[in-house]
Amino acid sequence: MFSRLLPLLLVSLVTSPLLAQSPPQSPPTEPSVQGLLDRVEQLERRIAELEDHERKQATTTPPADSGSETGADIKSVEAGATPAPASHSEHMGTATEEREAQIHYPSLQIRGFGDVDFSATDQKGSVSGFDLGQFVLHLASPLSQKVSYFGEVSFTAQPNNTYELSVERTIIRYDYNDYFKLSFGKYHTPIGYWNTAFHHGAWLQTTIARPQFVKFGGTFIPVHFVGVQAEGNIPSGGLGLGYNLGIGNGRSSNFSKAGDSGDVNDNRAWVANLFARPTRLYGLEVGGSYYRDKLTPTPGTNFDEWIASGYVVWNKQRPELLAEYANVHHRDLQTSQTFNTTSYYVQLAYRLPWQVDKWKPYYRFEYIHRPGVEPVWDITGTASVVDLVGSLVGVRYDITNYAAFKGEYRNFRQGVGEPRVGGAFFQTAFTF
Amino acid sequence: MRACSKPACGILLLGWLCLGSAVMAAQSHDGDVAIVVHPDTPVNNLTLAEVRKVLLGERQYWNANIPVVLLIRAPVARERNVVLKTIYQMSESQFKQYWIAKIFRAESATAPKVVYSNDMANELATAIPGAIAFIDVREVRPGTKVIRVDGRLPGEPGYPLR
User: Fold this and answer.
1) Are A204 and B143 inside 8 Å of each other by CB?
2) Would you state the pLDDT for residue A298?
3) pLDDT, position A40
4) Are A68 and B114 a contacting pair, CB within 8 Å?
5) DSSP A50-68
6) I need a labelling partner for A269 at 20 to 30 A (CA). Which of A88, A185, B10, B58 fits?
7) What is the CATH number of the domain that holds B113?
8) Could you tell me if B73 and B11 lie in one domain?
């Protein structure tokens, strides 16, 4: 008998403390769990309505991002679309993110570029030493969904220990669509590839120096252009065609400068550039451009100038190939004499796969040939463009994503009958 | 310890092989990265070359009224790695340099917007007209539009973003 009652007794002993710990019955006046859940659901619905209302109000304020790949603000867009169905907690989080993404126009982004250089050559009379390269500030600011501004100013150290401040680019652009974008201001003239691909800021380019024919301060091509430009894609399927068409002041009386303050003659220069980026050959770009101007280097002397150029670029890093050709044709309008100066360069580089792609050796060959007598180049009595043949070889080491060391050896002959000059050059270039 | 009999070992091995292959198959499909756009974006299908043009900033407008708004995951995210490897064919540093150069050539006013989660990508792709984002297909939420790449949706054989 006792053995039969023993399990019952044990069950009773074990369950009684547990039952004693269970909460007492709620009084009938307090809300039930279901009631509370209903209340939470109502509040969630109300919050969602309020957020939806807030989003609709924000349609006039374009959102952009709080972070972008360049550390800059993003393109303006209209908000106000219907939000995705989402859980309440997710909705709240992303609504905050969206609020943070709101910006007001204009949204200015500034990026600086600088470099420090060392050079030592065996040229007679030259001295080795350090120099500061250009200190450059780039400015970009979307003004609305379709209007944007770009600017570039440079500070260049001068021999008398002062700095020359120069507005290199100032462009206001209106985008109609991908096929037509119209801009006004001061550009880098779309002649060839290098002049528009690499601006002031040595960090952008693989090598330490630009090729001689697109050198800043040089006169071979008009590096800058003041006027109006149309650009865009051309519907061409896989061919990936694009264009630039510009009309502007052309060169000033100082051939290395653009006519910032006005045209030196009553004749506009124009430039047309056509390029292709075939989709089947990702990385390839080929293009050609034509530039025409009338030069008035001194009162009473006038020359026609035609510049024809072409390029082939493979801009993947393994390998990188840049090859450009340009011919500058001058015609004396009084004597009808013509003069042609030719230049080209070929640059090869290869991003080595070791050490997280930091090393990039490179080589460039450059060539310029001009007539012995060229009245435009010699107008000031000293030749502004001279024969040149030479090579450089070097290596770039990207110490971070935003700074690089470069070292190169150059061997050039500049001028007919002049000796070859060799030199070692080092640079650290960075963006910030 | 007693060794298992031959038939039992065979069954065990077969079981492990089946389980392993099933897991691998599941991973290969679940790992696809979907291209999602705002539902009003006037595209349903793009070739991989067209996707590349959009991501390179060479195509900046869906039409005259809808600008492209690029959304890309922050570094280390798998979706970002797939996009960089498959579409850009660039390393992380090349990608950063590309966009700095692009903006300061005055070819684009803005760089891709960085999003820090797939939730954020979903939400912004739904809220911002013209937005395009890259999201693990398992985390795509209703309210966005998944577009085909070369006629294929994520999970279909031959889909390129995985």
Assistant:
1) no
2) 81
3) 67
4) yes
5) HHHHHHHHGGGSPB--S-B
6) B58
7) 3.40.190.10
8) no
Q: How confident is the model at residue B10 (pLDDT cuts 50, 70, 90)?
A: low
- Spans of chain A, pLDDT less than 50: 1-3, 5-6, 8-30, 57-66, 72-92, 102
Q: Does A100 touch chain B (CB under 8 A)?
A: no
pLDDT recorded at residue A166: 94
Is pTM beyond 0.90? Reply is: no
**Does A98 reach chain B within 8 Å, measured CB to CB?**
yes
Residue numbers of the domain that contains B117: 31-149
Q: What is the pLDDT of residues A146-193, one digit of tens each?
A: 999 999 999 999 988 899 999 999 999 999 999 999 999 999 999 999
All residues of chain A having their beta carbon less than 8 Å from the beta carbon of residue B100 are 70, 111, 204, 431
Edge-first strand order for the sheet with B33-37 is B45-46, B145-149, B33-37, B131-136, B69-73, B113-115
Taking the Cβ of residue B113 and every Cβ of chain A, the question of whether any pair is shorter than 8 Å is answered with yes
> For residue B46, with 0-12 CB atoms within 10 Å meaning exposed, 13-18 middle and 19 or more buried, which class applies?
buried
pLDDT for residue A69: 66
Helices (H), A191-345: 194-197
Q: Which of A72, A145, A317 sits opposite B103 (nearest CB)?
A: A72
Q: Is residue B88 part of a domain?
A: yes
Task: Mark whether B3 and B39 lie in a shared domain.
Answer: no
Pair B65, B143 in one domain: yes
Beta strands B69-73 and B113-115 are parallel
Query: What residues of chain B lie within 8 A of the CB of A357, using their CB?
Result: 91, 93-94
- Inform me whether the C-beta atom of residue A68 falls under 8 Å from chain B C-beta atoms: yes
Q: Is B67 contained in some domain?
A: yes
Report the SS3 class of residue A104. coil
Chain CA centroid to CA A90, Å: 36
Q: How many CB pairs below 8 A link A and B?
A: 174
CB A191 within 8 Å of CB A307: yes
Best residue of A74, A102, A184, A322 to probe chain B, by most B CBs closer than 10 Å: A74
pLDDT at B21: 44
Give the pLDDT confidence of B108-148 residue by residue, as tens digits.
888 899 999 999 999 999 999 999 999 999 999 988 899 99
B30 confidence band (pLDDT: 50, 70, 90): low
Q: Residue A117: what are its φ and ψ, rounded to 5°?
A: -125, 155
**Which residue in the set A68, A196, A198 is minimally distant from B113, CB to CB?**
A68
Instruction: Decide if B81 is inside a domain.
Output: yes
Q: Which ipTM value was assigned to this complex? A: 0.79
A171 contacts B111? CB cut-off 8 A: no
What is the predicted pLDDT for the residue at A214?
Answer: 92
B69 CB neighbours in chain A (<8 A) are 74-75, 77
In sequence order, the 6+-apart residues with CB closer than 8 A to the CB of A18 are none
Q: Are A193 and A286 in contact (CB under 8 A)?
A: no
Q: Which residues contact A192 (CB under 8 A, 6 or more apart)?
A: A214, A221, A287, A289, A309, A310, A311, A324, A326
Average pLDDT of span B48-57: 95
Query: What are the structural domain ranges in chain A?
Result: 32-104, 109-431
What's the CATH code, domain A109-431? Answer: 2.40.160.10
